[in-house]
Amino acid sequence: MRIGFVAFCSLIMASAFAQSPSTAEVKRWEAQAKQVNIVRDTYGVPHIYGKTDADVVFGLMYSQCEENFERIERNYLEMLGRRAEMEGEKLVYNDLLMRLIADSNDAKKDYLQSPIWLKKLLNAHADGINYFLYKHPEVRPVVLKKFEPWFHLMYTDGSVSATSTGGASVEEIKQFYENGPETNSTVYHQIKDIEERGSNGFAIGPKRSASGNAMLYINPHVPFYFRSEAQMVSEEGLNAYGAATWGQFFIYQGFNEHVGWMHTSGYTDVADLYEEKISKTNKGWVYEYDKKFMPVKSKLITIYYTVNGEKLAKSFTAFYTHHGPIVAKRNGKWLALKEYNRSMKALIQSWKTTKANNLEEYTLAMKGLSNTTNNTVYADDQGNIAYWHGNFVPKRNPGFDFTLKRNPGFDFTLPVDGSIAATEWQGVHPLEETVHLINPASGWMQNCNATPFTLAGESSPNKNNYPYYMAPDGQNARGINAMRLLNNRDSITLEELIEIGYDRYLTAFDILLPPLFKAFDATSNTDSLKNKIRPAVETLRAWNKITDTSSIATTLAIDWATKINALWPRAKTQEENTEWIGRFNAIANGVSSRKMLEQLNEVVNELTAKYGYWQVRWGAINRYQRLTGKFAEVYDDSKESLAVPLSSSRWGSLPAFESRSMYSSKGRYGFSGNSFIAAVEFGKRIKAKTIVTGGHSNNPLSPHFRDQSAGFVYGKFKDVFFYKEDVFNNKEKEYRPGE
Q1: Alpha carbon distances (Å) from 565 to 122, 493, 571, 572, 673
Q2: Whole-number pLDDT of residue 128
């Protein structure tokens, strides 16, 4: 339906009013701006100095807006459930998902009840953005004309996968709420075989480092340009350097003078789907719980969206049980989602970790138990290294089986019976009960979004000591590669740590190629297919399984592996989707010999049809290109790009470079993978090196738009200017917000 005329006029008036701040607001902004100093170094990285933490937050948000206001607005529209107002009707059900999960009224209440110190930060967060918009009228927000202090309480997790749905999909939500709750048709539930974005985190203890100092490697794999690099320094003890997600006021992955933290996405079970026994009475919908009938609660949710510049609306009656919102219907049963995606405690915990100065203080911050999507790899200047798998872990009834084994070696987390009390969460596990490890005898730790039970080689935690739902994560090819490298290295320097992090060996092909070669050798020499693919097989046999720009085998292997992977059934659950080594073994043993040969022949034919020959070097087609700085980049074969030796981390490469052909391009262009990366050594003085995708600036006219491109592609990091004297010795520009 179309939005009513009166309501639409009200929205226009509200937007116009929001663009005209009061005199008092402007005076407040200008007064705070005078207390902030922004120094951009020779790479364009902002170092923000202020008297108070709130001053620095104000400066950080102003500097982020200078770099990329579009992404800030988009991130908050997503968390507010309002992206369809920017991007159109296709996002209506994504918005409905977010509105089902998080109510902005709860965030507003949290703001009013927040401690004074946090309220100051929230006020500074909104003020910094609003001051930028006031000083830059040429920047025109699409939707959010004015930022409110409670907005950040809708966005309390800096992860790329910040919302846990228990496995429910947007398609299922659309099916349920578009067709009505009485519909018998349901979407086939299938886990998508997505790219491995993931992340890598390594901690090196003193016994393994050349200097005797602990070291940390920070390597998130996210969509390119997802975060920005910055330093935040105040006279209240804040001195954090690293990556901040656009629009958030804390350093999500980084370090201060004493400790460092890296978050990798994990699969600890933090959200559950409950099968509700629903029936309809003359008084409305009811559900059965503990042998009683309870009323299904409901509320109206209206989603606005734009079509050709016109604002329209769709309204939905949302349903809730005590478990949470109804998000799907499977096998005739409504599914309610229980989750903990948004909380003030999570934002407090994120902030406090950045100000921790030792293991004790960092551990105390972690006892907030509010981080729902992340694992944490840690190192400090006292020589400690540590790891926590997850943080918020709901406690389940030990007598109730939350997993069901369908195939040997795989556990499946499925929807559970919502009509009985036995399936309820029973509080939260204290930090001491979660999977963790401090100062292992191995002297190293790694997590690559895989099982924590191979975290530190023989020093890893024992799987039998923990319930399954704490760590259902499977093993992947990156984890195997990281263990191979770290277990055999001593006296590691910071530069060598970077080399390890950029190792391009593809461990998946240790599993996948032998059955191909076996099938080829077993095939008769008179077979025409064998003779046709013989040169390609010989190329693969001679390959060292390391991706390189000059490698023809890399092109053949990745295209072939992609094809045989598509032949195998997709994972049925998120947990199964993490077990990549199991999947590779199943493919190696389950795909027929003939199919393996035929798929390689298809690769040869497709390469020949596209390029005129099959001997295509990886670097000729695998490219990095940055043209416009827009959120949705358009790639162009006719314009300048860099050959990239990296590949998807799915196959075992530690650096990630997800690429694909786009818009009928012949080249494959990178769009996700390595982003901000840091290698940090904790001694008497911090020694750190970083690199970002392309360059720090989002402006194509800036000298910092592409100045880090070659370093990003080949792992040549820049020095971090952490101490104030180094920052000013390498200063490019110094100013206050508004100048």
Answers
A1: 47, 38, 11, 15, 20
A2: 98
Task: State the pLDDT at residue 545.
Answer: 98
Summarize pLDDT for 657-707 with one digit per residue, the tens.
999 998 788 999 999 999 999 999 999 999 999 999 999 999 999 999 999
The sheet carrying 324-330 orders its strands as 297-307, 310-321, 324-330, 333-338, 272-276, 416-417
Give strand pairing partners of 245.
227
Identify which of 241, 392, 8 has the alpha carbon closest to the alpha carbon of residue 723. 241
Cβ–Cβ < 8 Å for 121, 336:
no
Residue in 265, 253, 259 with CA at minimum distance from that of residue 228: 253
**CA nearest 74: which of 142, 11, 121?**
142
Neighbour count for residue 51 (Cβ, 10 Å): 14
Residue 596, both tokens: 């393996």
Contact 387, 203 (CB under 8 A): yes
70 and 143 in contact (C-beta within 8 Å)? no
Largest CA distance in the chain: 87
271, amino acid identity: A
Burial classification of residue 121, based on how many CB atoms lie within 10 Å of its CB (0-12 exposed, 13-18 middle, 19 or more buried): buried
Tokens of 265: 């996405």
* DSSP state letters, 452-465: GGGTTGGGSPPGGG
State how far the alpha carbon of 126 is from the alpha carbons of 45, 72, 101, 146, 283, in Å: 22, 12, 23, 8, 45
Contact predicate 647/653, CB 8 Å: yes
Q: Which residues pair with 388 in a beta bridge?
A: 376, 436
Assign residue 673 a region (left: φ > 0; alpha: ψ between -120 and 50; beta: otherwise).
left
620 torsion bin: left (phi>0), alpha (psi -120 to 50), beta (else):
alpha
| Residue-level length of the chain | 739
- Cα distance between residue 446 and residue 501, in whole Å: 11
Q: Tens of pLDDT along 198-233?
A: 799 999 999 999 999 999 999 999 999 999 999 999
Residue-wise burial string across 568-589, b where 16 or more C-beta atoms lie within 10 A, e elsewhere: eeebbbbbbbbbbbbbbebbbe
Low-confidence residues in the chain, pLDDT < 70: 1-19, 185-197, 399-412
Burial of 308 (0-12, 13-18, 19+ CB in 10 A): exposed
Helical H runs in 36-168? 53-80, 84-87, 92-101, 104-113, 116-135
Amino acid at 559: D
Which residue in 198, 317, 211, 175 sits closest to 263, CA to CA? 198
Q: How many CB atoms lie within 10 A of CB 441?
A: 10
Question: What's the Cα-to-Cα distance from 197 to each of 233, 271, 485, 680, rounded to whole Å?
Answer: 31, 21, 21, 22
Q: Give CA–CA dist 209/187, Å, rounded.
A: 53
Report the chain's terminal Cα–Cα distance, integer Å: 46
Tens digits of residue pLDDT in 259-271 = 999 999 999 999 9
Nearest to 302 by CA among 583, 523, 81: 81
Is the CB of residue 671 less than 8 Å from the CB of residue 633?
Answer: yes
Alpha-carbon torsion, ordered 356, 362, 368, 371, to 10 deg: 100
Residue with tokens 């006021």: 249
Query: Element (H or E) spanning 666, and its range?
Result: none
Which residues, at least 6 apart from 49, have a Cβ–Cβ distance to it below 8 Å?
36, 37, 38, 39, 56, 59, 233, 234, 724
Handedness of CA 341, 342, 343, 347 (dihedral sign): positive
Place of tokens 């340009």: 225
- Of 434, 435, 438, 440, the C-alpha closest to 358 is 438
